[in-house]
Design goal:
By secondary structure, the protein is mainly α. The protein has helices spanning 4-21, 25-42, 54-59, 65-78.
Length: 79
């Protein structure tokens, strides 16, 4: 089951990907604003970007959501 924080993390990651795909300054500005909005909403969730979490990998390591999930799963299997 996906939590509200996970949903916002996923949307944040998608918005960052859209910035990379943007063809003009308007698109970059728009998606950066979307990212900022999701980041602001995520601040309501304590620990959403603790080291080793999906949020950490998406926000600090700048991975896409699926890669971040793989990293979290991989670390769980190793512990």
């Amino acid at each position: 089951m996906i939590s509200n924080a996970d949903y916002l993390i996923q949307k944040y990651a998608e918005a960052r990907e859209k910035i990379n795909e943007a063809k003009d300054d308007y698109g970059i500005t728009y998606w950066r604003g979307v990212m900022d909005t999701y980041h602001s909403l995520l601040s309501a969730f304590e620990g959403w970007a603790k080291p080793g979490t999906t949020g950490w990998y998406v926000f600090y390591e700048q991975m896409n959501y699926d890669a971040a999930l793989c990293m979290v799963e991989r670390s769980r299997k190793c512990s």
